[in-house]
Design goal:
Clc chloride channel; 12 strands; 4-stranded mixed beta sheet; 767 residues; homodimer; mainly alpha
Chain lengths: 767, 767
């Protein structure tokens, strides 16, 4: 046997390199164990590639194979005859568009209901509407004339007729904290009990899934329901979290659900293209930003890789528009506008000297963004490695209590984040009233202090919250932190201008300090952009999202400067954004998009050479008859890899076989005939023709494998993996197998430098 | 000899397939003849790949080689010791950023001056300023109080004191036509005499260059100067053309010039990344749209392919911002706003029923866009194949006369296009006065007729103008056509509403027809977007450009619907946009981004098999001594291909050699020693070691060639060429060469279906 089936300690060599990753790899390769497939035919045929392999959660799809399967499926549909042949292609594409349309409408309505629910639950912590329990404060007070005071909305102390200041303060704070805890705890209980995958933002997983990771459980119906409901509870609880990332997850779950409802049964590559489009819809609804959604799909989800496939961009475009129209139609805010945080009163132009505070904000965004990423990663690893992990609900309850208590003390933390941001983006305007003293020109220093303090507290709270067992997005907290800091910078600049209106640097402004020359609201927008840039490291899509979020089109240049600057500074302090860091911590097989430059290495430096590989040796001349079918069966049972290279005499490469195909074929055979296991087998068609008594396995063999020479530059290999979405590459020289590189090797190569890579990889997440 | 150097009729087989393309290929491969290169070392080394090949115009670069050269260069800079080693990397990247900054500032200022020049020259056709010849009408009349009539700007008949109506009309029209002809003719003379590459838009060539085509003459200093000056003259002449595309060309020329000034001496791949960034700056200035510029670079110039290289996006971002800031600082319109065609007075929301006219406009955009593309291609081919080609200046003069005469009769054609568009985008507002009767509510049918007639005439004029020997962009004419049709549709809808205010379909509007419910200006924006979508087939970047151009952020959804719809309809009528059609007509080696799906073919269907290839046979066992150095030299002189596969006995693949390297090496040798030509040679290192008397050419050999098996699906090969930017792929099986596919084969495969592919390919354009 030893001559026929060589086995060498590839796995062991991996383990010594990185324990977690080796486990992941072993897992990755092992766990397609229960796969089944549909077609199994004897004989070689062009449709050989098209057999559908069902991947299990935790494995990585083979894009080449899946694309081939998709082409084959399309061809089969088009080749049908008669009436069926005429209608099948139409029905096929109609179903896809039905899924797109339904998902778009669904996520638009879900987003609208989420907003309504959050606003009502959030307001409930402060008081209630006299004439109806289910009205939020805005709906309760609508229909009043200008200047009229709203009597219908009562705080709890008013409602319970408690007039003493101490009593009312105590009651208000007590209800505030208790309701916050109740909301957060119920979200957490729902997540822990019914859908553990509904926690966190979901974007890292979606990114990994779209790039080829298989994780169907993450997209299930329960996850959809719990994530949507839990998200509303979590956001209303006042924790430092947002709804944006989770909405992307909800949108993807919805697309998956609809694809099941319409019996689309998509191939794995088709499914991923659908998910990429659905993710655009999520962003479109979360920010009211249809174009930002499309660009988010392109930039952040790396669907640049599909850019040749105009389908993906198309569907993203259409689904984003439908989702935004649905949201606008549902009109949760009663404004029939998409723009969430309309910037108003900001002067249409900006002055050259304002680039100085903008650059400072950009640098701050980069530094604090990196800090937040590192803090968050540290907390996540701490949680993972201590007994906190055993008590997720308790952690949520405790931390919500801390958050609520701290937030209640500081007015800018107590209000809902979205309300705070909307007001920070606004210019002070005598007609609109003062927002908690923000516009008081005599209290500049108090306001600056309060804003910076709020930002500081929010950083700490967010670093802990993002990763608890509760649905939580990072966008809104980041925007809040940035808007606080930006507004503080704006107030500072305004204060300086008012103090020294004649200074040379303010020469672009009139020397009269009572004139509105500096708009602190605009600084808040810039600060938010810079902080988002520092945390997510997005660029173009971020700028578009900020536009569509604020309508501040005339300030495109400062916003671009802020985003570019913060990414620059942030990249200098740590190369990747928060999503990439989480992906790396969880060891998902995903290649970060950041540039890789080799230092003159060739592929040989990363390649596993033949003597360390498990290969199937089909050398019938050397030991004819010794390699029996039984031995082959035992071999594939024993080695859990995704597949094996097949070689003949002298390591000459014949092709590559997928383990599951061989297993299923041999299983099929042994049910038909028992005595087959003592016969001989071959993968080489020529050998099979010469020896008709051999079991001909050549139909299982994939001859069209991608081969390189090991002398190619490492960068070329990296580029090929990234751009072609490869699963593995074989290396050969003069027809002889010299080695193999898998996606896992690439992931290791490209993510090893990130902080805490693999620190959170849990086998149960990959089942 | 026949045994050593096999030659088979590859070229002939190609010619039978497509004459023009075969010529192009022969040309493409032939014309690196006079290449030279810097390093030539004996001995095999890792830096072998890094030798700089200087490509001649008309060839295609080898991206893999150039990327390797770039890496090698970076490494060499970093490996320097001492003070030089510390500063060299800084100086290296500083120079790149200097080029970026200078190009950004340069194109911003150039764009501003262009605007000033065009406005003045254009106004000169109507009259002059009393107190200064060099003032345009706006500058001349500035400083007046509201309501005051401008006396300082006089028409020519006023200036020459001609009071009779007939006389003044004749004089005005005569001067208008004569000056138009003079301006266009001078532009044409400049182009024909000094810089023939300065004609047309330049975007097709830029696209081809960025994807790897070598065409340095297109980026020369003279081209820069003539294109900028000629563009101002051409635009001012009132021909149906815009400045947008040519500005992209000017920007790229500028970047190339600055890279020479700063002695950057970039590698070919680095140069292309720089050009991609510069192109963004061009768009940024042309539309006042920095973000649109970045996205244009990403979408239209296919720099998606570089998306992993964050450098490119970065530089695009920075250069766009710098260019826009420079433009804003130079402030040609005195508004210190970037927004060119500010939409004002448009209501912030739109109604559901308006989607019906929007969809009609989208369909019209797609149909008329396709029509315009086909008309334009037909005219271009007609011009190319008739004697018109010999008289380019005469053609310009004649056609300008026709344009001026026709335009003078119709008021909406007579005014400058940019002024017309700005007014079509505006809402009617009693405070701003009526623009040539456009706002007269009693003249709806007259206006609709005039607008549709103008659009029709513009389509015909544009189809002819785009391609004459004069710098000409297609964006502005397209916007004009679309805006006319859109405004007409808006007027129609408004008219219907006023006639039937109580109709069910208008239920979203108040039943009072005097209320402003429908905004015709908004329809003009939608029409322009739809027409742009139909002509260019851009998507995301187009929507962003329209936003930044108009500031109509609240109408993102209808604009997206229009762009998506027109692309859909357009793609159904003809797959590619106007730039792709021109690239295909000129047979540039460029792969269109549109999706390709094979019908089950494998690579074998397109591969040139070994028996049709010219290969170098290094079979020393078969005929030792017979293959002499002299014979090899003669062989490489005789065959003009870019390179040759090297095989040994039985077609076993050894590697690939570049023809120019062999030629240069052998030339070098023969200057050193005369008797070498009778000696034997080998590319195989092992053979060289065994036979020290053989000339060892193994250092010239590239062993790390990309190989595939011919059984791989055709789509995979197409994807590899597109995504990896390959020049050729070898096919092998069990170490034996089976065939070759080049980029030219791919171009043929992907563009053969386009109308009039290759119809304009002229050898002189590739010299």
């Amino acid at each position: 046997m030893a001559q026929v089936l060589r086995q060498l300690p590839w796995l062991n060599s991996l383990t010594s390199r990185n324990g977690d990753l080796a486990a992941a790899e072993a897992f990755d390769l092992n766990d397609s164990r229960s796969s089944s497939f549909e077609l199994l035919e004897h004989g070689r045929s062009a449709s050989k590639l098209a057999e559908r392999v069902h991947y299990k959660d935790g494995s990585t799809i083979d894009w080449q194979r899946e694309e081939a399967a998709e082409r084959e499926r399309k061809r089969a549909i088009h080749d049908q005859r008669g009436v069926r042949g005429a209608f099948a292609p139409i029905w096929d594409s109609t179903r896809i568009w039905l899924v797109i349309i339904c998902t778009g409408i669904g996520i638009g309505i879900a987003g609208a209901w989420l907003d309504v629910l959050v606003r009502w639950l959030g307001d409930l912590r402060e008081g209630r509407c006299v004439y109806g329990f289910f009205y939020n404060s805005v709906a309760c007070c609508s229909g009043l004339d200008a200047g009229e005071v709203c009597q219908e909305w009562q705080t709890w102390s008013q409602y319970f007729h408690i007039s003493s200041i101490l009593g009312s303060s105590l009651l208000q704070s007590w209800i505030y904290i208790a309701l916050s805890i109740a909301l957060a705890a119920s979200a957490s209980v729902l997540v822990v009990t019914y859908a553990p995958y509904a926690f966190h933002t979901g974007i890292p997983e979606i990114k990994a899934i779209i790039s080829g990771y298989v994780f169907d459980a993450f997209l299930g119906g329960w996850t959809l329901l719990i994530k949507a409901v839990g998200l509303a509870l979590a956001v209303a609880s006042g924790l430092s979290l947002g709804k944006e990332g989770p909405l992307v997850h909800v949108s993807c779950c919805m697309a998956y659900l609809f694809s099941k409802i319409f019996r689309l049964n998509p191939t794995e590559s088709q499914k991923r293209k659908l998910l990429a489009a659905a993710a655009s819809a999520g962003v479109s609804v979360a920010f009211g930003s249809p174009l930002g959604g499309v660009l988010f799909g392109l930039e952040e989800l790396d669907t640049f890789a599909f850019s040749n496939e105009s389908d993906v961009m198309w569907r993203g475009f259409v689904i984003s528009v439908i989702a935004a129209v649905s949201l606008q139609y549902a009109d949760p805010f009663g404004t029939s506008k998409l723009v969430l945080f309309q910037v108003s009163g900001v002067s249409d132009t900006w002055k050259g000297f304002e680039l100085i505070p903008v650059c400072i904000l950009a640098a701050m965004g980069g530094v604090i963004g990196s800090l937040l990423i590192r803090l968050n990663a540290t907390v996540a690893v701490y949680r993972h490695n201590t007994s906190l992990r055993e008590w997720p609900i308790l952690e949520v309850v405790g931390f919500t209590a801390v958050t609520a208590a701290v937030s209640y003390l500081i007015i800018f933390c107590r209000v809902q984040s979205s309300e705070l941001v909307a007001n920070l983006f606004q210019e002070c305007d005598s007609s609109r009233g003062d927002y908690h003293g923000l516009c008081n020109p005599t209290a500049i220093w108090r306001n600056i202090f309060l804003l910076v303090l709020s930002a500081f507290i929010k950083v700490l709270l967010t670093a802990w919250t993002f990763g608890m067992m509760i649905p939580a997005g990072i966008f809104l907290p980041t925007i809040t932190i940035g808007a606080c800091l930006g507004r503080a910078m704006g107030l500072l600049t305004q204060g300086l201008y008012r103090a020294y209106p004649d200074a040379w640097i303010f020469s672009a402004c009139p020397p009269d300090p009572t004139v509105q020359c500096i708009s602190p609201g605009f600084y808040a927008v810039v600060g938010a952009s810079a902080m988002l840039g520092g945390v997510t490291r997005m660029t173009v899509s971020l700028v578009v999202i900020v536009f569509e979020l604020t309508g501040a089109l005339s300030h495109v240049l400062p916003i671009m400067v802020a985003v570019v600057g913060s990414k620059w500074v942030g990249d200098a302090l740590g190369k990747e954004g928060i999503y990439s860091v989480w992906i790396a911590m969880r060891s998902y097989p995903w290649l970060p998009p950041s540039e890789f430059r080799d230092q003159g290495q060739t592929a040989a430096s990363i390649m596993k050479s033949t003597d360390r590989l498990v290969v199937i040796c089909d050398d019938k001349e050397a030991d004819s008859g010794e390699g029996t079918v039984g031995a082959l069966k035992e071999f594939v049972e024993r080695h859990g890899y995704h597949g094996f290279p097949v070689v003949t005499k002298g390591n000459a490469l014949v092709g590559f076989v997928i383990r599951d195909k061989v297993r299923a074929y041999l299983d099929l055979l042994s049910t038909e005939a028992d005595d087959v296991s003592h016969g001989s087998w071959t993968f080489v068609a020529a050998t099979a023709r010469q020896n008709p008594e051999f079991l001909d396995l050549s139909s299982l063999l994939d001859e069209a494998v991608l081969q390189l020479r090991k002398e190619v530059p490492l960068q070329l290999v990296v580029d090929m993996f990234k751009k072609m979405n490869l699963r593995h590459v074989l290396f050969s020289h003069a027809g002889k197998l010299t080695g193999l590189v898998t996606k896992t090797d690439m992931v290791w190569l490209l993510t090893a430098h990130l902080p805490r890579t693999g620190a959170l990889s849990e086998p149960h997440h990959r089942r």
